[in-house]
Design brief:
alpha/beta, 8-stranded mixed beta sheet, TIM Barrel, 399 residues, binds pyridoxal-5'-phosphate, elongated
Length: 399
């Protein structure tokens, strides 16, 4: 992988400070560019929300704000507060996720967030009770666990038995109850199929399915209109460097045609994108502390592991990576090194699960060099085992 020059320069500056290097370097220029491109290519009515679970660092929220995304998709009260601190009005927040606590729902109603995405009938009643306490109504979407999944996707959120949303087959049990709750304004559906999808056709299938559901609901419930349709996130990025990125332009064109076919002009179509917006704006950089040969395999040990960058181990994949050579003096004559071979990268934690890369081809690496993992801007630090072994957190450096 080619490490961008400005990222390498920053790594060298940091390494020159003399402490063991372990950091994320963020440059949100790609995120800014991606939002701008998407905004220009999407059909009328599509609204882009940043799913801040991908990276809630203020630099990413600031970029989303300045790029004029429609708002932020939150999944906890903590995220809500970070979004508001970053300058988003609560009315620009949409809240999805199973198991929202009464405290979280109370905050939403009190601050007037845009929509709460209902994940079960119990949640609808809990939210309604809070609305009654405040004497205030709340716009809601109903999240559906569609009877459809994308088998090749990295993680699926619908199809089969899921903790997300209400099974498609149960819509007629749940929807009338929600419609009868005076303080809940039903605005539409949320159907999120899968994350990390690389084939645009698969996500378009999900859109068509939601459109069909919408038509059925509107036919069966006179007077009900789903004027907001939320497709969730899911646009993938090319972690495996296959050369095939998610084709957002083809997806936009396909959606445009679907909107025409279904005569759904004038509605709101929400996208909650995380990975696609944030991944290529971050690099995880960690110093090589040791290299060992162990029973025919070379093990490269870095100062940060799954406590700082868990994603490769969690997903069982290698991120694109490269080495910044530091030419540090050897500590002893028999010091191992890597030269044009396949090796294993791990961190300092006392678990075999602490893996950063498996069987990866490396031209050259020595102790003291810096291993650099790209596409680490999304689900990097945010989904790592930060507390395990009480190592200090990596620095997060914003360029
Ligand atoms: C409800 C919801 N929306 C949006 C996203 C963002 O997904 P992605 O990063 O794949 O775009 C997620 C991710 O888990 C999610 O659960």
């Amino acid at each position: 992988m080619h490490i961008p020059e400005h990222i390498e320069d920053k790594i060298r500056d940091e390494a020159a400070k003399g402490h063991t290097l372990n950091c994320y370097i963020y440059d949100t220029t790609p995120m800014r560019q991606k939002i701008k491109t998407l905004q220009a290519m999407m059909p009328q009515g599509v609204e882009i929300f940043y799913a801040m679970k991908a990276n809630s660092h203020p630099a990413f929220l600031q970029t989303a704000l300045e790029s004029k995304v429609e708002g932020i998709e939150i999944a906890s009260l903590g995220e809500a507060k970070k979004a508001v601190d970053a300058g988003f009005d609560a009315s620009r927040l949409i809240y999805t996720g199973p198991g929202k606590s009464p405290e979280e729902l109370r905050w939403c109603v009190k601050h007037g967030i845009r929509t709460v995405h209902i994940e079960s009938l119990t949640e609808a009643y809990r939210l309604h009770q809070i609305c009654c306490e405040y004497g205030q109504s709340q716009d809601v979407l109903l999240r559906i666990n569609a009877n459809f999944d994308i088998h090749e996707a990295q993680t699926t959120f619908s199809g089969g038995s899921k903790k997300f949303g209400v099974d498609e087959e149960k819509i007629d049990d749940v929807l009338p109850e929600i419609l009868a709750l005076d303080y809940l304004n039903f605005r539409g559906l949320h159907v999120y199929a899968a994350s990390g999808v690389l084939k645009f056709e698969d996500l378009l299938k999900n859109c068509e399915l939601v459109f069909q559901l919408t038509k059925n609901i509107e036919a069966n419930y006179p007077g009900v209109c789903c004027d907001i349709i939320d497709f969730g996130g899911g646009f993938g990025v090319d972690y495996l460097e296959t050369g095939h990125d998610f084709d957002a332009e083809a997806w936009a064109k396909g959606l445009h045609d679907l909107i025409e076919t279904y005569q759904f002009e004038g509605r709101h179509f929400e996208l909650e994108l995380g990975r696609y917006l944030a991944a290529d704006s971050g690099f995880f950089c960690t110093e090589i502390l040791d290299i060992k040969e162990s029973r025919g395999k070379k093990q490269v040990i870095c100062s940060g592991g799954i406590n700082h960058f868990r994603r490769p181990a969690a997903l069982g994949i290698n991120h694109p990576m490269g080495i910044v050579w530091m030419s540090r003096p050897k500590l002893h004559t028999y010091q191992e090194r890597v030269r044009d071979e396949h090796v294993y990268f791990g961190g300092p934690l006392c678990t075999g699960a602490d893996k950063l890369a498996n069987d990866v081809a490396i031209d050259a690496a020595d102790i003291g060099d810096i291993a650099v993992f790209a596409l680490a801007g999304a689900y990097g630090l945010s989904m790592s085992n930060q507390a395990f072994l009480s190592h200090p957190l990596p620095q997060e450096i914003v360029l």
